[in-house]
Amino acid sequence: MHMRPGPTPKAGTRPPWVGLGAAVWVQIASGNSYNFLLYSHSLKSVLGLNQRQLTMLGVANDIGENVGILPGMVCNHFPPWVVLSIGSVCCFFGYGLLWLSLSRTLQSLPYWLLWLALCVATNSSAWLSTAVLVTNMRNFLVNRGMVAGILKGYAGLIAAVYTEIYRLLLHSSSPNLLGFLAVGVPILCLLVMNLVRPCTPSSRESSGESIHFVFIQVAGIVLGIYLLTTAVLGDILSTSPIISYIVLATTAFLLVAPLMIPLKMTLYPPNVRNIGMDEQESYSSNAFVEEDSSEKTTPLLTPSSSEATFGGFNGNAESSDIAMLLAEGEGAVYKKRRPKRGEDFKFKEAIVKAHFWLLFLVFFVGVGSGVTVLNNLAQIGIALGFRDAASLLSLFSFFNFVGRIGGGTRMLPRTVWLTFTQVIMIVVYLLSASGINGTLRAATGILGLCYGTQFSIMIPTVSELFGLKHFGLFYNFMSLGSPLGAYFSRAC
Fold this sequence. Notes:
Pfam families: NFD4_C (PF23262), Nodulin-like (PF06813). By secondary structure, the chain is an all-alpha fold.
């Protein structure tokens, strides 16, 4: 087959590591929906809500976070900074209205407006996460599973970061937390949105790239251990303002660690000649795929048109079939076949596949039930005698991070991981329901581990089954399983 020469990559095109480092910070911002249990008790007491109303606000939190069909479609037609800007606006107005209500600046707001504001506020998570996840998975084609595990790992870990900010900087004040989310998250996105953009993807995995990924994973694990330690020692650390600022500064330094990779590559640039050869091979390979796919999607001529071309074969159905075969042989007709596993599916082509709905079911059952427990973790902790549920959130966050990082590896088949974590979650739910003293912390940590593993496995699996062209739409449709599962869990 004749192969068209690929386009020559632009000289000086920067590597995608800058965007990945900035994406970590955006993922921090996108984890704002995990803070619901930090201010849910204040919503109940200050606004006079009953438990049913508070539970429905938890549903709004889940719906806003996971309904990302629109971001999935927008990211295919607009650059990432547009998607990030929309997410920032949602965050500002949603959390801003909640802050006005909880601080009693605006009184007697109707309940439906609070519910809608929380939906809009947490929907910013879908916009921010979709922008950085889709962009970076396309920038790292070979290591898309690793990238998904890292980014979603940091998103899971950020609940512990927010808990630390809530305790040490905001003095455990729910109105201050809502004000911080309304202003701080949009400012962070505005500062880094220009760094999150498409780059020339690498065509093959190199040893240097593997080392960089290991560095980011190790930095994340160190950050997680540090946050867990400071959460356990929270009462001691919060007694001195100086110590509190040192703890927060150290946290910020560990979060900057992924940006050390592009800094190192700037100071010690790799061999330009080898990079150019790799990129040229990548573009040539992509050109081959484009040539091949263009042949596969050539429109199919109708039988009547083929019969008109071959007028001697129009007597009956058999002659019509022969005419079609001859037309295909002459190159006049190309049959358009359905995409195979791993190729780019359209949405209507994917929803008829059994794999699509099996993944959705796993997300519905596993992640949906996990979200239900997470949103009610404060009430569970209080019922079992815990004065402060923030330590439980930090524990859940750390093991959620570990599960998401581990879910990006391929040591075992993903079906084995999914089955194993589902069985463990059933045991954890039974353990939590028993109310045995001293088991809540262990159950919370194990639940976070299983929850994070299932979340991380779903993302690369979707891209490997249905391609990256419409990945944002597929990923956000799968995410709908989480609020639906959470709603039915509460109904039961």
